[in-house]
């Protein structure tokens, strides 16, 4: 079994400091994506501030959580590299801003575990380092148009471990295409396909990956 160390304490998730407006938009998208699969049960790997679980339980879903940090008081204590559940245990398995906290060599193993215990969908998000300008237009007869325009960059930055993130999407060696291919290829072994990958206009630092069970 791979043992993992807690990288941040519970004080890291202080509401005022941690849950800014941009991150709040990420919570909305997390909920929206999960509900799009009409699940009866949801497992969240990596509890964070606990906001997702509070809302999903209020909605009436059967929600359970897993984390390596017992101080956060998850429903289950354990590692994403060895989930203590049988196959197809939950309709949707969610894992947001977690997998970058371990070395990339464990990425496929973690994905395999998420897919193994998921019955219908795996919903992920990871940090994305590619710089963009968010644009908003309101056009007559068209309505709102939002898009992200890449900022020019002479070279792709190299990531250095900062005490939390071992790697980040769109830094050198971790292109979004590479990450998408890995998520899709591992998913195919369990009957899943990557449906879409996108960045939030409101919070472009977060890239979402949505994988559903093949019909």
Reconstruct the topology from this structure.
Layout: H1 15-18, H2 21-35, E1 41-45, H3 51-59, E2 62-67, E3 76-77, E4 90-96, H4 107-117, E5 118-127, E6 132-139, E7 143-150, H5 176-188, E8 192-199, E9 206-213
Parallel strand pairs: 1-2, 1-4, 2-3, 4-5
Antiparallel strand pairs: 5-9, 6-7, 8-9
Helix pairs in contact: 4-5
Short description:
This protein has 215 residues and is of the alpha/beta class. Helix content is 24%, strand content 29%.
Protein architecture, described:
There is one protein chain. Helix 4 (107-117) crosses helix 5 (176-188). The protein has 215 residues and is an alpha/beta fold. The chain has a seven-stranded mixed β-sheet, sandwiched between helices. The chain starts with 14 loop residues before the first helix and ends with a strand. It has a single domain (10-213), classed as Vaccinia Virus protein VP39 (Rossmann fold), CATH 3.40.50.150. It is globular. The longest helix has 15 residues, at 21-35. It has helices spanning 15-18, 21-35, 51-59, 107-117, 176-188, and strands spanning 41-45, 62-67, 76-77, 90-96, 118-127, 132-139, 143-150, 192-199, 206-213.
């Amino acid at each position: 079994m791979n043992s993992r160390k807690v990288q941040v304490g519970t004080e890291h998730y202080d509401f005022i400091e941690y849950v800014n407006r941009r991150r709040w938009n990420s919570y909305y998208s997390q909920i929206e994506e999960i509900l799009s699969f009409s699940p009866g049960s949801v497992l969240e790997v990596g509890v964070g501030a606990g906001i997702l679980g509070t809302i999903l339980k209020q909605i009436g879903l059967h929600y359970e959580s897993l984390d390596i940090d017992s101080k956060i008081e998850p429903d289950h204590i354990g590692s994403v590299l060895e989930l203590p559940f049988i196959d197809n245990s939950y309709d949707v398995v969610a894992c947001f801003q977690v997998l970058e906290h371990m070395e990339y060599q464990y990425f496929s193993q973690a994905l395999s575990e998420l897919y193994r215990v998921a019955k219908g969908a795996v919903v992920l998000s990871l940090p994305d380092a590619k710089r963009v300008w968010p644009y908003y237009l309101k056009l007559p007869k068209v309505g709102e148009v939002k898009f992200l325009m890449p900022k020019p960059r002479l070279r792709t930055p190299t990531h250095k471990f900062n005490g939390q993130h071992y790697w980040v999407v769109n830094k050198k060696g971790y292109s979004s295409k590479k990450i998408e291919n890995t998520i899709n290829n591992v998913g195919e072994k369990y009957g899943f396909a990557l449906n879409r990958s996108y960045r939030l206009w409101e919070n472009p630092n977060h890239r979402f990956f949505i994988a559903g069970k093949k019909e």
